Amino acid sequence: MEPGIPEKYDYEYIRNGTANIFMAVEFKAGKRVTQITKRRTMVDFAQFVRMLVDEEYPDVENIQLVMDNLNTHKEKSFYEAFSEEEAERILSKIEFHYTPKHASWLNAAEIEINVMDIECTDRRIGDMEILTHEVTAWTRRRNDDEKKINWGFTRGKADKKLSKYYV
């Protein structure tokens, strides 16, 4: 500091922790399932999918999961989290589909996460309990209103746009 020169302060970001929000979207039905976790590990992912299989869709024989290529989004996660028998039981009901790199706009959950960011989580929320309460309320409201994603991307448009990725 010198006389006549204003004192300067630098903003110091204080991180109070992180959280993860898992989301599954049945976009034609206007249904989404969210779950808040402290981490985003293979075990956390496997437990979220088991909840989908056992609690949300217990009578469904085949669940199609479209997701990005995140390192936790693999069959290995289930063997890390559960016994071999339990992992195979869950995996027998799941079919994985991975979006190409840089194509998150093909993933309905990513689209819905963007809506959630705009309507609900567009700020720092420093408490897991508050985050869970707000995301749960947002999810319930979106589901009650049956908010759907109007998907206008056809196979023809996909072939044209993504042809550079095909061999």
Automatic annotation (TrEMBL):
Domain of life: Archaea
InterPro entries referenced in this protein's UniProt entry, alphabetically: Tc1-like_DDE_dom (IPR038717), Transpos_IS630-like (IPR047655)
Short name of any one Pfam family annotated for the protein: DDE_3
Domain Tc1-like transposase DDE: 3-129
Name the UniProt record assigns to this protein: Tc1-like transposase DDE domain-containing protein
Organism the protein comes from: Candidatus Argoarchaeum ethanivorans
